[in-house]
Amino acid sequence: MDPLTEAQQKLMPEMTELLKKRYQILLTIKLEEPIGRRALSELAGSTEREIRKETDLLRNQQLVVAKSAGMIVSEQGVAVLDALRDFMRDVSGLIAMEKQLKSLLGISKVLVLPQDSDDIPAVKSNIGKEAARLLEAFFPQYKKIAVTGGSTMAAISKELSSDKRDSLLQFIAARGGLGEDVLHQANTIASSFAGKTGGSVKTLYLPDHLSEEAYEMMMREPVIKEMMDLYDQTDVVVHGIGNAEEIALQRQSSTEEVERIRSGGAVSEAFGYYFDKEGKVVYRIRTAGIQLEQVQKAPAILAIAGGRSKAKAILSYFRNAAPQTILITDEGAAQKILELTQKQEEI
Amino acid sequence: MDPLTEAQQKLMPEMTELLKKRYQILLTIKLEEPIGRRALSELAGSTEREIRKETDLLRNQQLVVAKSAGMIVSEQGVAVLDALRDFMRDVSGLIAMEKQLKSLLGISKVLVLPQDSDDIPAVKSNIGKEAARLLEAFFPQYKKIAVTGGSTMAAISKELSSDKRDSLLQFIAARGGLGEDVLHQANTIASSFAGKTGGSVKTLYLPDHLSEEAYEMMMREPVIKEMMDLYDQTDVVVHGIGNAEEIALQRQSSTEEVERIRSGGAVSEAFGYYFDKEGKVVYRIRTAGIQLEQVQKAPAILAIAGGRSKAKAILSYFRNAAPQTILITDEGAAQKILELTQKQEEI
DNA sequence: TTTAGCTGGACACTTATCGTCCCGCTACAT
DNA sequence: ATGTAGCGGGACGATAAGTGTCCAGCTAAA
């Protein structure tokens, strides 16, 4: 780190926290504009008064302007965000974390974003935005993109900029409809991606919890077979990583399933597979969808998960993840992962 | 200025003031160490509590350590001071001020130091220190140095580092003994300089307020004549600049003299000469000492004066000062000077 | 041995901050 | 056209933080 910055921090130790807080607020406003105090305080995870104090300051500094519909970031504000982006990543130690995680997880790229989405819901939007930027960078080269479901994936679709339209893009739902909220189903997300980018969409509608015979029969259907072939040609896989138990409960799985997941020691879940803490597959939901092998042979894989509560799941998943996988996460998760592994080393 | 710093300031406008304050306190401790809270609060011009709050912080940051004799700056603290020195000058706009003053006063070099010695007595020590560094840089080249009196000059002698000893140096009292405090007489200062540097000293003892005849007679004395010749060979002149009225009062001048000084519109004083606001000599104390012409033909001249109260005097003196003169002043004086000249331009 | 000056602790008091509610307004959806 | 949700700004008692001031105990120099 810059020796000047270090000296500043020595003389003003409160600077880092204060800068982080204000930067986060300004960033959140930018991501959600126009937004009011109350909504902002929800997203930032602080009280209305706190938000008010800081936004008053930001307004005085002419970084945001207050319109009747809410606050928006001024041109100057955007400039400040840009100027501080790398600095904030450095000063928070994010760059150092990325390096550590890269070697720890054995993958080529890790992106760690500020704060913790467990504390500050707005961090999810930022993760979504950066994931969207990364994904968009693949568009010229790769056209067949498989996407899963989940709120994390929804955040990405929100942040896809519509000025990168490309009608050749093909978004493929990586999984069939499951017992999840329809808004966060892979099918919904895939069509949302397509809508934002002007690409086409391939959805997969298969009810969850089929009997084995029904399942086998469906797999012989041409529409379904076509999807299975598409999975083989996938260029990019974009997926979230979940906590095994949470996901199992969300899906209203049968008690038998939950039992198998529990007894197998499942920690993480991704595209229908459950992994234990060694990264071994301990269970798989019997529904159509992309195969683990198909994911791993894709040229590019984006794995997205934030919040310290996901640390264990991330660690579990990356025990056997493909080396070309790119992880996009946040400070909270990254910190926790490094803590956990450090403890293990001590033992 | 660095765009990153600018962005930081936008997001944390209180940073500048806070940094300045803490930097100044740390610097003052360094200059006066070991020093206690009460003495420090006097020098810094703030309350004991304020000082205590900040020094507690500095101690927590391990920039200072508290010994029973007082606080001293740690190694880390010195590093912080060094790292921040140029930054503070930049962020306070001192560098910009120096440029403006250089062209305004028509001289080649101006050094502006932080804060205002009218508010913070410790600033004088800093001015003294920097003046000492500048003077020391001349030592290899120039050996004959004429010095005047005053508290400013005393501050320099305090800060002369004794590890630059040079027995060839010759310090010449630029003036005879005047009705001033003996501690701040040119003679005292000159011998103090000599003591610190290992050089020799030439003092000039002549009572103030001599009759004209006695004065003429003295001037024919060999000891005195020798001094007059030395003035001709002076390499460096180091002098302060005073407010005409203050100096006149300090010297317990006769009412006649004070009247002449007043009616002449004298604003500034330096080495016994009084200048009006156009820089014209309006009066000269009849005592032995260096001549204005002798000063102006010296290869190097250091003029030192700080505090906004000295702004008018500085401005007055530099109306006709030699272009090789170097001004060492502080933020308060510099700011006031620029304000004053800006007002004149508006009219 | 005395004394001056230092740190660290203590405490009442003032000041600023915070949580909370309300108001009038605007923009959008009905 | 009209209702309504959400906005910024104002206000104010409760509360926490900061401030001025003193004292005890200690150390080092005179």
UniProtKB/TrEMBL annotation, chains A, B:
<comment type="similarity">
    <text>Belongs to the SorC transcriptional regulatory family.</text>
</comment>
<dbReference type="Pfam" id="PF04198">
    <property type="entry name" value="Sugar-bind"/>
</dbReference>
<dbReference type="InterPro" id="IPR007324">
    <property type="entry name" value="Sugar-bd_dom_put"/>
</dbReference>
<protein>
    <submittedName>
        <fullName>Central glycolytic genes regulator</fullName>
    </submittedName>
</protein>
<dbReference type="InterPro" id="IPR036388">
    <property type="entry name" value="WH-like_DNA-bd_sf"/>
</dbReference>
<feature type="domain" description="CggR N-terminal DNA binding">
    <location>
        <begin position="19"/>
        <end position="88"/>
    </location>
</feature>
<keyword id="KW-0238">DNA-binding</keyword>
<dbReference type="InterPro" id="IPR048715">
    <property type="entry name" value="CggR_N"/>
</dbReference>
<keyword id="KW-0805">Transcription regulation</keyword>
<keyword id="KW-0804">Transcription</keyword>
<feature type="domain" description="Sugar-binding">
    <location>
        <begin position="90"/>
        <end position="339"/>
    </location>
</feature>
<dbReference type="Pfam" id="PF21715">
    <property type="entry name" value="CggR_N"/>
</dbReference>
<dbReference type="GO" id="GO:0003677">
    <property type="term" value="F:DNA binding"/>
</dbReference>
<dbReference type="GO" id="GO:0030246">
    <property type="term" value="F:carbohydrate binding"/>
</dbReference>
<dbReference type="InterPro" id="IPR036390">
    <property type="entry name" value="WH_DNA-bd_sf"/>
</dbReference>
<dbReference type="InterPro" id="IPR037171">
    <property type="entry name" value="NagB/RpiA_transferase-like"/>
</dbReference>
<dbReference type="InterPro" id="IPR051054">
    <property type="entry name" value="SorC_transcr_regulators"/>
</dbReference>
